[in-house]
Amino acid sequence: MKHHIKIFPIALGTVSLLSLILLFAPWSLFSQNISPPSPDFNGNGVVDIPDFLLFVSAFGTQEGQEQYESQYDLDGNGEIGIPDFLIFVDNFGKEVKRLPPTCMPNSGHLHPKVTLSDRAGQYRLTLIEVVNGTDARTAQGTLTLRQQPSGLESLGNSATPLYGFTDVNLRAVGAYEVGDPDSEDPQAPGVLVLESDRDGTRRILLRLGAHANRRDDMLFDGAYTVLEVREIVADGFAGTWRSGLRLSRIEGYFCARKKF
């Protein structure tokens, strides 16, 4: 209780400070050419006052502190400060980007601080196979993502903030099932989210198959099916997928749309 009492007046002071900046700072300051993570923090499709209050709760913190959360670090510099606020203001009142009505190819690159850690929930997953540059087979199903139990938040050099399962028929697009993709066991889940940074590049993968995701025994036959996230927006995420065994490989693109 004492902790909350201390934080409350600080939050009020921060609101007042940011409000003054919003009222009197020249709008030319807000015309930054930046493509940050979505400032629609609560995912309601528009950047508004509830998002502002969430932002205020983390304002002034930096990476390593308890209240720091990467989703509010809009410029990805490890600190939530005035530059992040200017980005937020530039988007205030706007509707945020959503997935197109139909699943579309996406080969973009992720912002350095973006994460799926706050995206637990149910999604409509669509996988589309691409053969010689042309869309071929399609598979659809439900993808469920859950927060990882304590003690299972990392694997090797990757963070594993979420695990889950899917009933999508991988064989319908020629993908390999490396164990049951519908497994709900956190120790061997059907879907495992792996987040890492390599050579300054943010990578988020969803590895499918209970055998591939076993924590007690990482040996399997070498087959794989992974989804690589290329974009995260208000109502879901999208990217590319690949599956293979030895010299055989198939690939395509996917989208995962949130079931609200």
Which helices and strands occur, and which strands form pairs?
Blueprint: H1 2-24, H2 49-58, H3 82-91, E1 121-131, E2 134-147, E3 154-155, E4 158-159, E5 162-166, E6 191-198, E7 201-208, E8 224-233, E9 236-245, E10 248-258
Antiparallel strand pairs: 1-2, 1-10, 2-5, 3-4, 5-6, 6-7, 7-8, 8-9, 9-10
In short:
This protein has 260 residues and is of the alpha+beta class. The chain has two domains: 2-91, no CATH class; 121-258, no CATH class.
Structural description of this entry:
The strands form 2 sheets. Strands 1-2-5-6-7-8-9-10 form an 8-stranded antiparallel barrel. A two-stranded antiparallel ribbon has the order 3-4. It has 260 residues and is an alpha+beta fold. It folds into 2 domains: 2-91, no CATH class; 121-258, no CATH class. It is built from 3 helices and 10 strands; from the N terminus they run αααββββββββββ. The two termini are 33 Å apart. Helix content is 17%, strand content 31%. β6 (191-198) and β7 form a beta hairpin. It has helices at 2-24, 49-58, 82-91; strands spanning 121-131, 134-147, 154-155, 158-159, 162-166, 191-198, 201-208, 224-233, 236-245, 248-258.
